């Protein structure tokens, strides 16, 4: 009798409540599983294509990584196609490191400005600036690089303008917000007491910044820079637009060059799926995946050793 | 050099850095908007592009960008929110949760060109669809999902513990608590985050080159049958977006007024992203006021 209130059969109602409770859990669980499956299948698909170069097309993996000549169209009479990808690997690392070199001091400096020099209004101005810099799409950065940076280099530095220098400048701006925002989080996580202790001992602001804050924040800064580098390494279109895309190791910073991403971007469209040249591009994509996994690994290793995390 | 001198020099240096960055953004925005706004007019945003001659517009591209964003949001929202709720409410520390968090970390740091290649393999070749907006939307979803999960998890975790405990103490089941108490309070945060994420989707190009393609068939904007190949609503037709168009015309160089069109399209993209930012803030605070008692 107590199971009926106002004509509603509570046992039935309870049944449906329990059913919905279980259904809800299952739906969220399935969503979570979809994420895991997606990640796993990206690795499996790209790896199966990427390894085909070595197992199906018989390209030597050492020649692939260290060969400096890229000539997929070389005929059999001349000795067959050459798949040396070292120029692209070199290009990717070169622009990534140089962009980090420019962007790290600027990003960390901006973070110090926002947290230590002018915490009230500096934050209010720079925060939206950083957010907008993140928001600008990468093709727009590429287009600005093409219409502004490349002609500038051509006129004032030399060469064609296209090259590693242009790529570096474009990437440095693109990764600046990443480095800044992670550095800000790091600086904020330094315990107040440490800073106050330093000031109480009579240290100036700069002494406090470089003796206390910087020392406590080094792992965080490295994380910030590695995140920035991960972004730079994987960036495709903006770099491709300003690099000039010559498949060789450039002799200077203002000669056309290529990166792993740029060669994939250009050639994926007009190679036949399943051909050796196409598979080599997949091997390069696999290399990108491996690098992005390596960046995550480095960040995790640093995180384990961090002392002042939020 | 005395400590005080060093302190002054350092301060000047930090102010300079901040100034450089502010000027950099001002310069970038100024350049894009000044160059672009000179090109943008009603004709530019409504007419289709021209081949080999100047004076074309970006109408279909703008439409495709918006349509693709809607498709992506429809796919991402349920899965992203589901996984976010799972992480915030159900996940127990253990191997599966660890695996899930690693997956999200990997997904969020994937280079977008790799996502595009995966899309090419799965949604273009394997399914046999060819270049389609649906393929592009699925690729963009992969790219957008980790962000959506994080937004949802953060928003739900930020709901005060007492609210959840009160609901459970009243005898509500866990799921009812989630749908009736947690999600409504977390909604402002989720919506704000989703709109901000939309900006990223709207400007993405690398993941789309080889999934939704670099061309658009001639569209008949009076044909609203989603199964017809020239209908703008058909998700299984190729369609290039604004961002893809900027890249394509610059790398092909077939149109004489590349600079003008790319400037206009860049300005449209940046304006859209500015609008997303403002909308996210405004809607976020409006919803927050509406759903809570804060005046």
Overall description:
The complex is a heterodimer of chains A (about 300) and B (about 300). Chain A is mainly alpha-helical and about 300 residues long. Chain A has helices at about 10-55, 60-65, 85-115, 120-135, 140-155, 165-190, 190-200, 205-235, 235-245, 260-265, 275-305; strands spanning about 5, 10, 70, 80-85. In chain A, the strands form two sheets. Chain A has a two-stranded antiparallel sheet with strand order 1-2. In chain A, strands 3-4 form a two-stranded antiparallel ribbon. In chain A, helix 4 crosses helix 6. The radius of gyration of chain A is 26 Å and the shape is globular. The N and C termini of chain A lie far apart (about 55 Å). With about 300 residues, chain B is an all-alpha fold. Chain B has ten helices and no strands. In chain B, helix 3 packs parallel to helix 6 and helix 6 packs across helix 8. Chain B starts with a helix and ends with a helix. The interface between A and B is large, with 87 and 89 residues.
How is the main sheet of chain A built?
2 strands, antiparallel
User: Level of helix content of chain A?
Assistant: over 70%
> Which structural class do the helices and strands of chain B define?
mainly alpha
How many distinct helices of chain A?
11
- Uncertain runs of chain B are none
Structural class of chain A: mainly alpha
Tally of DSSP β-strands of chain A: 4
Mean pLDDT of chain B: 87
Overall average pLDDT of chain A: 87
Radius of gyration of chain A: 26 Å
Poorly predicted sequence stretches spanning 5 or more consecutive residues of chain A: none
What characteristic shape of chain B results from the CA principal axes?
Answer: globular
Question: Which term fits the overall shape of chain A?
Answer: globular
Quote the beta fraction of chain A: under 5%
User: How far is it from the N-terminal to the C-terminal residue of chain B, by CA?
Assistant: 54 Å
Q: Which two chains form the greatest contact, residue counts included?
A: A-B, 87 and 89 residues
Strand order of the largest sheet of chain A: 1-2
Largest β sheet strand count, sense and barrel closure of chain B: none
β content of chain B, as a range?
under 5%
Order of helices and strands of chain A: EEHHEEHHHHHHHHH
Oligomeric state of the chains? heterodimer
